[in-house]
Amino acid sequence: MPWCKRRKNEPSGTENVGKKPTITYKGVTPIMEFFTVDLHGYEAKLPVLPLPSGVKICFFNLHGNVELTEHCAKELAKMVSDCDVLLTAESKGLQLTHAMARDLGQPYYAVARKSKKLYMQDGLEVEINSSITTGAKQKLYISKFDADLLKGKKVGIIDDVVSTGNSLLGLEELVRLAGGIIQKKAFVLAEGDAAKRSDICYLGTIPLL
Asked: Where does residue 98 rank: exposed (0-12), middle (13-18), buried (19+ CB within 10 A)?
């Protein structure tokens, strides 16, 4: 949202309109760190944020960013063009996979949810260990429709970032349970040691700090 500009002769009491707010913690103005990464021709500036564990991550967020999402989808689609169908997990992978499926001419893609919805009672579920951001065990669910979509197909697993690989393991297990074939595992970013993996493809790498 753009900052508002104060009009001339505006009544008193509105002196702060148009000024960017400063957030302070215990009287100290925080200094934001950034990490710059090249995503196949798109330079992204990521804020460095601390997790409760003390580890700092380069925070990557596709939500609301049309240009970045479209660019990443276009580049990743080239890497998974040999896949019949795509699978992602909510929520950050959703718009990315939607755009990729569109570019690949695939009318449907499968979505693993993090809670069992009413329409998913006859679907599949798996439990996964904690990811670097959640810090707790969780479950992934797919509907019967999505399970049938994966059955016998070459599946591309898609997400925004791969780090510990725990979420990826859950998605892989869902593909196996559905009777699909894991063809590709593609991500915008590989974080930390994930960049050393030979079984994935990605656009860029980020460190754990």
From this structure: middle
Q: Cis peptide leading into 91, omega within 30 of 0?
A: yes
Q: What integer is the mean pLDDT of 38-49?
A: 95
Q: What is the DSSP letter of 72?
A: H
Sheet hosting strand 110-112, strand order edge to edge: 110-112, 85-89, 154-162, 181-191, 201-206
Q: What's the angle, vertex CA 181, arms to CA 186 and CA 196, rounded to 5?
A: 35
pTM for this entry: 0.81
Contact in structure between 112 and 142 (CB atoms under 8 Å): yes
| 137 phi, psi to nearest 5 deg | -65, 150
Q: How confident is the model at residue 10 (pLDDT cuts 50, 70, 90)?
A: very low
Q: Classify each residue of 3-18 as buried b or exposed e, where b means 16 or more C-beta atoms within 10 Å of its C-beta.
A: eeeeeeeeeeeeeeee
The 8-class DSSP code of residue 17 comes to T
